[in-house]
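Issue 218. Parser rejects a valid record. Input:
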Amino acid sequence: MHVLILGGTTEARRLAELLHDTPRLTLTSSLAGRVASPRLPPGEVRIGGFGGVEGLTAWLREHRVDVLIDATHPFAGTISFHAALAAATAHVPLLALRRPGWVPVAGDDWHDAGSLEEAARLLPALGRRVFLTTGRMGLAAFAGLDELWFLVRSVDAPEAPNPARMEVLLDRGPFTLDGERELLRRHRVDVVVTKDSGGAATAPKLTAAREAGLPVVVVRRPPVPEGVPVVPDPEAAARWALKRLRQRT
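Output the parser choked on:
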């Protein structure tokens, strides 16, 4: 049985570790290639796009993929919808692996946003020194806010257009609570912007913001395509794949 994992996340790497070396199972992980030095999972790895729905459909058929698991980032909405259409066309079972989103607790001052553009519109009323943790893509949404200063944290250097007043911090999680506290203090941050990525690796910034009484703009994640089953962790995804394998033998 051939399993294709659409990856690039910690959960995708863990899933590949769980399935690697399983008898009668061929494993391929696909990475988008947007990060310069990705952490590679075990097994076969391909890097780069498929060329839209038609390209992914052709790849599924050409490589005789039996199971497709979408373990991409919760905000990689385009590839998730392409996967749903391609899987339906190629008649390949599809599962989405999505880490649970963050949930506010007592003391949080969260402001909901449906997009980066909406987050940008909220900022002027919330603060002047922004810790922007939405990654290097999409900074154009904040480029017109010349009166605000931005600390932008990302794995790779962002591309223009960018905010006019900006400092870039190249770093990769997981991050510690003490480190996030010091970062907010040192840069005199008064508002945080994040995507609802979920997971523990980048969650300490939320605790640090809560402790400091800072508002946090949280961008909602896009929905999983309708009709696609979802599991919350790699272990559940591995059980789903192995059940398919047992059904074939």
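Fixed in the parser; the record now loads. The two ends are 10 Å apart (CA to CA).
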